[in-house]
Design goal:
seven-stranded mixed β-sheet; 421 residues; Aspartate Aminotransferase, domain 2
Length: 421
Amino acid sequence: MELRYADFATRAVHAGRADFASLGVHAPPLDLSTTYPFTDLGVATDSLDTLVGGDATAPNPVYARLYNPTVGRFEEALAELEGAEEAVAFASGMAALTAVLMAVRQDGGHVVGVRPIYGTADHLISSGLLGLDVTWTEADAVAEAIRPDTSLVIIETPANPTLALVDIEAVVAQADDVPVLVDSTFATPVLQRPLAHGAALVLHSATKFLGGHGDVIAGVVATGEAWARRLRQVRVATGGLLHPLAAYLLHRGLPTLALRVERAQATAQALAERLASHERVASVHYPSLPGGDPHGLVGRQMAGPGSILAFEVVGGYEAATDVLRAVRLMTPAVSLGSTDTLIQHPAGLTHRVVDASDRKANGISDGLLRVSVGLEAAADLWADLAFALAAVGIGGDGRLGNAQGEVPLCRSVPRPSVIAD
């Protein structure tokens, strides 16, 4: 009898390992084969037909674009953690989203989206590259945006980069029989499981928290069997299968997912509270701060506020640039969910492909910075942020301009000689 453990941490350690004992291994096996020999042409032909038709497995994998066992084990693990029937992994988060959009295109050429979402996802949906028409609307107006040819509703919660929360159950109720896709990358299955709230598909850029170490590009969709079959058909045809080495790294990282998310979340909470009272910070976006969760979703839909925060620096673009230039412990870089803390400028990078007026309308100002909190000590990260904020207004020559003249950086903004608890 197969045991099912209630605790997420236990399941994260053991998910996707059902065949390890029969294989006689302890670590996830890595199968790098591109092709698979056959001894019976009939079996190989039947296997090809079933895999092209969307089956998850077959007696003979035939060719690695159709199936890979290392990828399959990661998919099994992620499906268990999301409470899904199945999961389908792709070469990137954008490849996963593209496959969903291609799959729904046959159901109708219209999608409804709630902004903000990841900038490149916004661009793909809006660009017409896939022959789709999109209506962008507010979360409480999804019902009014639905048309007879609407094939999908897309939301991201927490939203990138403003951390706005969307009530999944409310959107699903408005969508009626139109499937809802939730990008749950920021939350991970540690904090949020959208399928339990009625969503049809859950999308992760697995590059982020699921990978967790900044060394893998991947995407995955957790869903029901019928949707998974459609997505695998697209993946077979387009060649979007996740590379087995990436799947190996993802599967290896899942046992520490809960620990990483919970540790980073505690630090993010501490940083958000301190940023909220800083004189050079105009606003802080974090779900657990006052006003950050108007619908009471933390504790009901999410188990916690997460480890991503965003804040707007007084002084706009130039001030944000100064902060990015001054940090020393944090890494100025896009992406998120890594063991080290990353800080980036959404308007200039991740959301640059979104029209400036749309960015502004959805709270993505030129002074907004997004921080993906890692596993460093909270005191060290705060010392780095405090120094960087104090450096706002300092020119490239290291001097602070003011009405009384220029003050040397070493006098006006002393760098901590030791960053410690």
